[in-house]
Amino acid sequence: MKVRILVSFKDSVLDPQGQTVKNALHTLGYGFIKDVRQGKVFELELDGISKEKIEKVIPEISDKVLANPIIEKFSWQILEKE
Amino acid sequence: MKFGVVIFPGSNCDYDTFYVLKDILKQKTTFLWHKEHDLKNVDCVILPGGFSYGDYLRSGSIAAFSPLMLEVKEFALNGGLVLGICNGFQVLLELGLLPGAMLMNKNLKFLCQFVHIKIENDKTPFTHKGKKGEILKIPIAHFDGNYFAPAETIKELKNNSQIVFRYSDANGQISEEANVNGSMENIAGLINREGNVMGMMPHPERASETLLGSEDGRIIFESIINKLD
Fold first, then answer.
1. ipTM above 0.85?
2. How many helices (H) and strands (E) does chain B have?
């Protein structure tokens, strides 16, 4: 089973990289783009673990390792088997 | 007394720090390998600058999970002196020994230059040989030095005099222009509430002999030596 975790800056934290990307998009004529936030994607392949356990473990490792809760937030989803 | 300089894969100021302590300041100094569980009875642990684990994930984050960091954490919680320089500061933040986090520099550039920092707290084991208000000229070299903390934390840092260094101009003026990386409150260095763990972005080991343009960084090492001897 695969899990995808998305980590990005909290709304209260400035994202200068996202701003820079936005400015570049504006230069290219996409002026309708109001804001860009950049983040990180992690795809974890799991084996021998129940769905219930995943519910517990993924937030735990996201909080402890993948994201820094002072500046970042995360969301996650189980990807269907490919 | 004895200093221990921790080496992570990707540390690159470990030998500079070792050289300053051993050859310039004539102190017993030993390297500490991050994979071991042995602090070798040192009296002060220094986490040096560099790019531990290539800054993967977040600067300092993987190093914070190194085996030796369990001992460093315990050492710190028992009152041992720990100094984190640049990447070492980032490791201390990731370890939770110091509050806050580092963001990318406000101009998205790697900054490698001399800066001026003002001593805000001269009552610490790392700065007591200096004077409050004194300006030090020490270089920085980092990408992620833009200090961030929630408003509540900043308030606590101020109330407890935990801000040790702030970026200033040569005259000690704390301004937005002097705030090279965009840090909140111009923070260049801070200490924990107990007063035994300090992190700073500037590199004192690169400013410890006149040949290199400044000796101002020696104040930090000499304060530690004076405190522990």
1. yes
2. 5, 11
